[in-house]
Amino acid sequence: MPEQLDLLAGFSRPQAETQTAPTLLPSSPAVEPEAKADQPEHAPEASPTTLLIIDTETSGLDPQQDQCLEVGCILFDVPSRSVLAQQSFLLPVDSNAAEAINRIPAAVTRRPQPWQEALVWFEHLLAAADLLVAHNAAFDRQWFGLGVVPATATPWLCTMEDIRWPGERQLRSRPSVRDLALAYGVPVWAAHRALSDCIYIAEVFARCDDLEQLLERGLEPRQLMRARVSFEERHLAKAAGFRWNDPIKGAWTRRLSDREVAELDFLVAPVELETDRLSA
Question: Where are the beta strands (DSSP E) in 59-171?
Fold first, then answer.
């Protein structure tokens, strides 16, 4: 162990870095100029080949008050469907209000372990990836750049929100990690730790013959669309993965690409959120 720590310490740290528009027809996925689609900054120019699958465990849900206490990750090679490296480590915290969920006592996070050296290795793994992948990436990415967790400019992809899993897998539009793993024949065990969820995603990816297409389509720019359906037609929106009252009260909405809009069999219109207008 001392020799390993000396080697890690010698690494150099890498540089971190509701208005409704006119109704659209399914055959015309064009978007009004003021309604901007989501597009990751610094998006990969080509199809990603090296993924860093990431999961975090935290002491709560609010990054302004709570802390990240565990990081798990797997460096995954897309062409060979192979794991290149994997890592999991704890970060010391004084308390853990989410212990009932992640089963990590705060006292355990403070046990002697080389977490500083682990962070250096983690930054090297971040630098090696074309794309960061997480299940519910909106939650995990918000901890980066806070506390000791390094900031990153690498684009993210969410396996829950962005990837459209094949219909024959019979998954919900926003599947849980457990359901996704079982749909691809990956055994699920009880452990709720950061590396466990990374392993599930890596095993699912290893079983995907169409992984390149899933990733490319998952990275398509998307914007929030409102389903223009009557009460009697609401089942069409629900079946297409639209959500009621979230984030727009009294509406069925989902983030879609132009290609996905063109494939719908009902009318939709783009929605601009207040947060989108403020950030424009």
Answer: 68-77, 82-90, 131-134, 156-158
